[in-house]
DNA sequence: TTGTAAGCGTTATCAT
DNA sequence: ATGATAACGCTTACAA
């Protein structure tokens, strides 16, 4: 379709620098990649030539030659939520420190064509992959297997991760929240959550731990939807209820609506969110929530990947669990 | 540092497919890139071979050869804010439909070493660049100039964009908000804002339009900081005040604190935010805010870039303004 | 410490 | 419509 007239992107190449510095191209390459193997004097001359010419190495050529792209592809559903933004940000930083660029691809929810995305991404020959969740379609698994690329999956656990995994058990989160509520003397439980696979797992764990979850409503992903859903749900909530929301946004919606309805928190209604977004700390009342260390998740994922890429995979387990904790605030 | 033993990423290459299909490599390449130039029968055989072998084309080799990476690099300060997440998401989608991958790089605020990041990104030879804001350091400008890569800058305006630009005037936003407040009979103004360059510009415009902005407080970026800042500021606010916050998060902090202090909204205090985040619609009272069409910004940026890459840059202006509007809700 | 030669896997270009 | 050949800009492997 597009047919640009092949413009010279950056005329300056390694041979130009080599000529200017009076050395062989290979020496320029060494100055850039293994400076310790070049004499200081030569290195200085080469660097001067690089600066003078404004040389920017072509990593695409280097990658083809070395068969290492020094690039990691990360696939996440969305960056619009702090849920993924945080680990992605820290993963990117950590990989950057190790000399890798991270290429971010957005999949949206619905694993319909995750395989297609993975395929597209593999075409760029990343040295490694960061994936969200631990459920892969058979097609995706096949692709990953034949590509033989190190893979880290985050945000979830699974019996059989594709390769490495850094996450936590969402059902366990639900169970812990239920246990926390029970310890507070609650006997009536409700769950309000989004329909994505991990939110559902948290709801399932909560129902197990809560023994008698009186109400489980699904679907809302936004504050406004949560308010509507809670308004509908509230009618059935006759006595003191402990509600677990699948995200802080939903918890906030519930609390906003509860205030409008004159329901007292935490006396008549106790609420626990998930994610520990800034909103939960900043809102009044401050929202009790489950904190997951997203930064640590990103850093850990990077460490695993870097270890593998450096060939020292032995020291690292293939599965790492990221801790979570309930942050008790005003709504419980 | 890392020295992996050069593993065969995906053994299958174009010559393998060609051999399996009984054609020349070039024919396989044509099936993939210009199928209309291959006879249906041959194409079918080739595709069968591709599927059978699980061939994933090596775009890194293709890019070196064709000098087109089919990749766009996007540099944004952060994805943790919906401010940037939205246009980035829509830009990515739109470029994807045009056959380009978007590689996202996070710069953080502070243009300290933006040039370094740009340099790193240019090493991958992107076909185009998406940058945030319109202020480039001399070093960055030099890099971009010598790279001769199409550049779109978003989120701002400038007299001299680097190349193409899709944004809006932040001072004008401030002036419009001031005008809106004045039309409502306000005479006392305050601004509470983050210290980044665009927030500052909105505050400047607001001060111009408000004639007598009584208080301008800077720094807060989070809800909690905004609450503290407002509490300090509130003492000086003796009469009915119209406050413009540099983001909806800050507006929310102000409103939360105002409620705690017993300040009635919008009677004693009118508040307008910026960004039209989900929170503003979902909160109670719903927050009046400035809506900027981030989706449109991303799509427009993509259109400009695609047009340029397709060689038909003439039809498009180099500057496009994205509309913004005040969304009137309960806090004014 | 530095250089030479031979690819890396694909596509542009020119033939057929 | 298909093929042969020569790059693309760099790095690996080996030599000096």
Question: What is the compact description of this entry?
Answer:
The structure is a homodimer of 332-residue chains. With 332 residues, chain A is an alpha/beta fold. Chain A contains 13 helices and 12 strands.
Describe the overall structure:
Two copies of one chain form a homodimer. Chain A has three domains: 14-57, lambda repressor-like DNA-binding domains (434 Repressor (Amino-terminal Domain), Orthogonal Bundle), CATH 1.10.260; 71-169 and 294-323, Rossmann fold (3-Layer(aba) Sandwich); 170-291, Rossmann fold. The longest helix of chain A has 16 residues, at 82-97. In chain A, helix 1 packs across helix 3 (40-53), helix 8 (170-183) packs parallel to helix 9 and helix 10 packs across helix 11. In chain A, helix 9 links the parallel strand 6 (189-193) and strand 7 (213-218). Residues 1-9 of chain A have low confidence and may be disordered. In chain A, 45% of the residues lie in helices and 18% in strands. Chain A contains 13 helices and twelve strands. Chains A and B meet through helix 4, helix 5, strand 2, helix 6 and helix 7 of A and helix 4, helix 5, strand 2, helix 6 and helix 7 of B. Chain A binds a DNA duplex (16 and 16 nucleotides) through helix 2 and helix 4.
Q: How many structural domains in the coordinates of chain A?
A: 3
Percentage of residues in strands of chain A: 15-25%
Question: Which assembly state applies to the chains in this document?
Answer: homodimer
The counted number of beta strands of chain A is 12
Helix and strand composition category of chain A: alpha/beta
